[in-house]
Amino acid sequence: MTPAELAEVVLSAAHAVFTERGLDRAALPERTAVERPRNPEHGDYASTVALQLAKKVGQPPRELAAALAEQLGRAPGIKSVEIAGPGFLNIRLDAASAGALARSIVEAGPAYGHSDRLAGTKINLEFVSANPTGPVHIGGARWAAVGDAMGRLLRATGAQVGTEYYVNDAGTQIDRFAASLLAAVRGEPAPEDGYSGAYIAEIAERVRAARPEAPTLDDAAAHRVFRDEGVALMLSEIRSSLGQFGVEFDLYFSEQGLHDRGELERALTRLRAQGHVYDTDGAVWLRTTDFGDDKDRVLRKSNGEWTYFAADCAYYLDKRLRGFDRAVYMLGADHHGYVGRMRAMVACFGDDPARNLEILIGQLVNLVRDGAPVRMSKRAGTVVTLEDLVDAIGVDAARYALARYSFDSPIDIDVELWTRASRDNPVYYVQYVAARTASVARNAAEVGLARGDAAAFRPGLLDHEKENELLKALAEFPAVVATAAELREPHRVARYLEDLSGAYHRFYDNCRILPRGDEEVTDRHRARLWLNDATRTVIANGLRLLGVSAPERM
Asked: With contact defined as beta carbons under 8 Å apart, do 543 and 497 qualify?
């Protein structure tokens, strides 16, 4: 029995008690929840439903709890119900009911842990969005791992998700990039505010190879060639490195495309119609102070140029017109100042910032080797890149390490730790369980042990303390996934997988799965194989949500 199924049993019992007592059933919730008590001695699960309902219907909590306990005690699969404190219900399942979860997990396979909690929600999830002026740095790598895991989690809970990379291919930074390329190919020093690093020379040479005449053109024409060709090549490299990292976007969205399609004018027209635009000193302004911003923002300068903020407005409007209910922006640590203006901008469009906008601010990442931070890339020259991180510890370890911590906390990634083949290395610890469960299944087949038909499964034989502990851990997975999705916290999945791995190791050490020597295969062996395979399923499902592999051998 899963926690969700038990919660339905509790709610059914509450309906029966309310009917018997003539209480107002309108006070009953559509759903309730059960939790694992901190102290296992208090039972398998706990419910506060008596406390919640007693106040609504004017009943003494313990009296209502007693009636619920009596009703629950008659339900199939419930071993006992105890009343604690002011009216808590501590519930114990019988072994057969608890053990049946193993079969449910194996039969559900990759779908176990999925739900429809966020069904009907259409979310635009934008992350990474690094300027196409250099390789993805380690901060962008963090957003790649966290953002991709978040998209997987949201989809696993029923949301319709569009993942998006916003390509900042318009503006002065692109002009500086083009000037840096042109200087490199002409053998000139890089512009004072330009870009440097071996990758600049590489890109410049690739542009010259494709367009040999480009360096000899007049400055304006040459600049246009190196701008267009250079951005295309750099973006291709970015897409390739992200793809090798296991991150694919539904859409790469061009900022220049907003300008070319006239979407900035469309956004300005919409904002002016809302009454929040004014003109002064030849410039066009948005009165964001009406909605809490510290100052009004310029949309169009007096010289006629659009501001970056105007493009932000057009981009948000474009997302909404594409049907997204909620626009989620995942931004770096240097973007705290954007929050107020973005919330005000959304309000100026007539939307609700609390419902239609979500901004997540990530913190810094350091790659540490021999106790000291790695300061720069051999290729990029100024920063540590995604490729440097992958070269140092591998894709799986990098993705797991970046997703394992709350994104609003700075982290150091220790190369020695994340490449160590020991239980100190969190990703190795979890992947080792994936491999061990697969090994057990292979060895079982070699000795003639098979799970057998589901109808012949004897879940009541899973009555050992460590089996019960593992079953309870497996039962928590759907709630962990739902909570991680709703709170935008993929690290909850990683920490859960580590706890589950510990529970599996304790089960493995105390409950022999395979028969010894000529020992006869029994129903208990088969039941434990079901539990082993259920663990393999949940470990694989959890790692998949993080974009990490579940190896069959290590």
From this structure: yes
Structure token digits, residue 116: 């429809």
**Cβ neighbours of residue 394 closer than 8 Å, sequence gap 6 or more:** 419
The order of strands in the sheet holding 365-369 is 372-373, 365-369, 411-414
pLDDT of residue 98: 86
- In three-state form (DSSP H/G/I as H, E/B as E, the rest C), the secondary structure along 175-191 is HHHHHHHHHHHCCCCCC
Residues 6 or more apart whose CB falls under 8 angstroms from that of 219 comprise 182
pLDDT at 466 over 80: yes
Residue 49 main-chain phi, psi, to 5 deg:
-60, -35
Q: Which amino acid is at 498?
A: E
| Residue 196, phi-psi category: left (phi > 0), alpha (psi -120 to 50), beta (remainder) | beta
Average pLDDT over residues 432-442: 98
Type of residue at 77:
G
Backbone angles phi and psi of 520, in degrees to 5: -70, 140
Express the helix, strand and coil content of the chain in percent, nearest 5 each.
55, 15, 30
CB distance 100 to 53 below 8 Å: no
Strands of 181-263, DSSP E = 251-254
Tokens of 164: 């998006």
C-alpha span between 473 and 468 (Å, rounded): 9
pLDDT value at position 110?
A: 97
Kindly tell me if the per-residue pLDDT of 380 is higher than 80. no
Q: Which residues contact 80 (CB under 8 A, 6 or more apart)?
A: 43, 73, 91, 92
For residue 44, the SS3 value is coil
For the stretch 280-320, pLDDT in tens is 999 999 999 999 999 999 999 999 999 999 999 999 999 99
Query: How buried is 496 (Cβ within 10 angstroms: 0-12 exposed, 13-18 middle, 19+ buried)?
Result: buried
CA distance 190 to 506: 60
The rounded distance, in Å, linking the Cα atoms of 323 and 238 is 28
The alpha-helical segments, DSSP class H, found in 157-218 are: 172-185, 198-210
- pLDDT of 470 reads 96
What are the structure tokens assigned to 445, written together?
A: 């087949």
433 pLDDT band, cuts 50/70/90, is very high
pLDDT at 21: 86
Say if residues 62 and 87 touch (Cβ distance below 8 Å).
Answer: yes
**Each residue's pLDDT tens digit, 21-79:** 888 888 888 888 888 887 878 888 899 999 889 888 888 889 999 999 998 988 888 88
Rounded CA-CA distance 349/285 in Å is: 14
Q: Write out pLDDT tens, residues 124-139.
A: 999 999 899 999 999 9
Structure tokens at 256: 């220049």
Start-to-end C-alpha separation, the chain:
33
Rounded mean pLDDT, 375-385: 77
Task: Return all residues near 257 (Cβ < 8 A) that are at least 6 apart.
Answer: 263
- Give Cβ neighbours of residue 270 (< 8 Å, ≥ 6 apart): 317, 349
